[in-house]
Amino acid sequence: MKSETITSKQFFSSTENITDTTVTRASIFNVKEKKEKAVKKNDTKKARPLNLVVLISTFIVMIVGAYSVYLLQPDFDQFHTNRINSSFGFYFLIVTLALFFFHVGLFLYNVYLYFQYKPIESVTDDLLPTVTVIVPAYNESKQVWDTLISLVASDFPAEKMQILAVDDGSKDDTWYWMQQAKIKLGDRLTIFQQPENKGKRHALYRGFQLGTGDVFVTVDSDSIVEKDTLRNLVSPFVVDKNCGAVAGNVQVLNNSQAIIPKMLNVSFVMSFEFMRSVESSLGSVLCTPGAAAAYSKKAVFGCLEDWINQTFMGQPSDIGEDRAMTNMILKQGHHVLFQRNAIVLTNVPEEYKGLYKMFIRWGRSNVRENIMMAKYVFKNFREGSKFGSRLLFLNQSFRIIMTYPFLLFMLFLIVSYPLLFLSSTLLGILILSSFPVLFYGKRYNWSESFWAYSYSIFYTFGLFWIAPYAIATANKRGWLTRGLSEIK
């Protein structure tokens, strides 16, 4: 395996003969960057009226849907009467009511846990553990430079931080930008280049093997950390001696113009700041995100070989490395926590194709890891209460199991009662999406919060097929979104 570990002296001596080339490439990239900024400025101007049109259309559609429910009330009454009078319909009603009360009870419990959650404040410099930050990169171009610069700018003792960047056989200029970061940062950064693309899991594995810190921090190469992110991310390991992993708080970096990132920004806040706060209160965060996560060295080496050699249905696992690592650390009996004050900004897909491929990958990983979790969650896998882990597992399992029955029922309604289905669905979106709107609006920005309504409509009608497809193809390999940047 090819390895390029470069010290400052070695790197500077090796680059003396390519100074002119470097300058030429740098000047080319400066021109390219200026052009990209000009294009982005233009796109922003064009995006504003389009964004407004989408939001206004969203409200018109929901209001029309709600009003249609009112107009179609006699048809709804007849539908319910017919359903209750049939033997199948009566049992279906019982199941529907049971599910309704279960979800209401679960939601209220989640709200209670959310208010119980408090992020752990940063400990002092002398108590901070030594950390190894691992940045795997594949075809990220200049973005990897921004990631590495943001890490070095962290408010974290330099003598306690080791930064390893691994180029996973990129086909673009990622390695060039890593070299440029090395020139600027010197001994603060060590860079490696894989001879071929083997996948993110293998890039991380190399970092785990070479890291010297007591805590490993993984940061995606398309992400930017805030100044206090690292110290907040690793402080729980000092406060909770049984802490095995910590999830960072992921927010969207590229949400200034494109519609999909704007919608995902609100969705991410709900997913992380609400749901992971709930999971953290139970000591059982189910997934530490690749964008920013921390792991104790002891916990990592307790499962490292199982993790790198993990298979599913006889095939090597090349997706879901973050969820798999989290699952294996939970299995060891460790707590997995969430730090709301450890913020990381990450790029998300701006187009439909990139988005659905990302969701398919997540969906497949969710199915695989839920099966793995079933093997230990009802055993005595850790000291203390295991209720929270089991409740979270059952909730996820229920969602997976009910995917196809819900899909079939939806198709039945679309074919038999299209107007009733459409109007009731839009009314449901208006009601249920109001919670994320209120949550995001209270925490951040009210005008941006309305994207939660647009996202719900978009997901319901444009992405509903992902869950059943991911379940049916859970055995398939492939990152899916790798190479999209090359196509662009």
TrEMBL record:
The residues forming a coiled coil are none
Q: Which CDD domains match?
A: CESA_like
Which InterPro entries is this protein grouped with?
Answer: Nucleotide-diphossugar_trans
Q: What species does this protein belong to?
A: Flavobacterium magnesitis
Listed A to Z, the keywords are:
Cell membrane, Glycosyltransferase, Membrane, Transferase, Transmembrane, Transmembrane helix
List where the protein spans the membrane. 50-70, 90-112, 406-432, 452-472
One short Pfam name that applies is Glyco_tranf_2_3
State the SUPFAM superfamilies in the record: Nucleotide-diphospho-sugar transferases
Q: What is its main location?
A: membrane
Compartment list: Cell membrane
Entry annotated with the keyword ATP-binding = no
Q: Does the keyword Glycosyltransferase apply?
A: yes
Provide the taxonomic classification: Bacteria, Pseudomonadati, Bacteroidota, Flavobacteriia, Flavobacteriales
- Report what the protein is called: Glycosyltransferase family 2 protein
